[in-house]
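Journal club prep, shared notes

We agreed each person brings one worked example of a sequence with its structure written out as tokens. Mine is Ribosomal silencing factor RsfS. I'm keeping it raw so we can talk through how to read the token line rather than staring at a rendered picture. Sequence first:
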Amino acid sequence: MDSRSIVDIAIQACEDKKARNIQVINIDKVSSLADWILITEGLSDVQVKAISKSVEDRLEEEANLLPIRKEGTSEGKWALLDYGDVLVNIFQPKERSYYELESFWSNGEKLNIESPIYSNEK
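Then the structure, token by token:
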């Protein structure tokens, strides 16, 4: 399974738990860290944990993938799921605003997940 397909599954898992403001940035041309970074948020530690669990469950079920590393999933302030080529970051709004990962990765290419083209690809 390619990294873009992994991103699509992660987006759906986030949407299932009503994650807010999902941003996906292609960073493969600007970093060797990963191909994609997904950034989203939940309004509480319970919602951050639920989004994180949803991503883990969907990727395990649909792609037979487990995260290589995960951080912050028990605290629910900033959960990081590292799938190698795909990094999933789930924040609470205060932490997202503080770290501003979108600004840090602004030289990457944002994926417009609201576009009709993307919707047709799902």
